[in-house]
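User: Some background: our group keeps a shared notebook of sequences we're curious about, and every so often someone picks one and asks for a predicted structure to add to the entry. Today it's my turn. The entry only has the sequence so far, pasted here. Could you supply the structure so I can complete it?
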Amino acid sequence: MAAIDPVCAMSVEERDAPERLDYEGTTYYFCSTDCREEFEANPEDYAN
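Assistant: Of course. Here's the predicted structure to add to the notebook entry:
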């Protein structure tokens, strides 16, 4: 299943995503460590 990286809006396959993070009960998938780190630094900007 495809997911959208909330930081860069890139489509990533959930099973192949290089990074993932659970935040407030939702799993977010990222294309890179940089995007995950940006999300962690500013989650209120990216969480739905």
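Suggested note for the entry: The beta strands are 2-4, 11-13, 19-23, 26-30. The radius of gyration is 9 Å.
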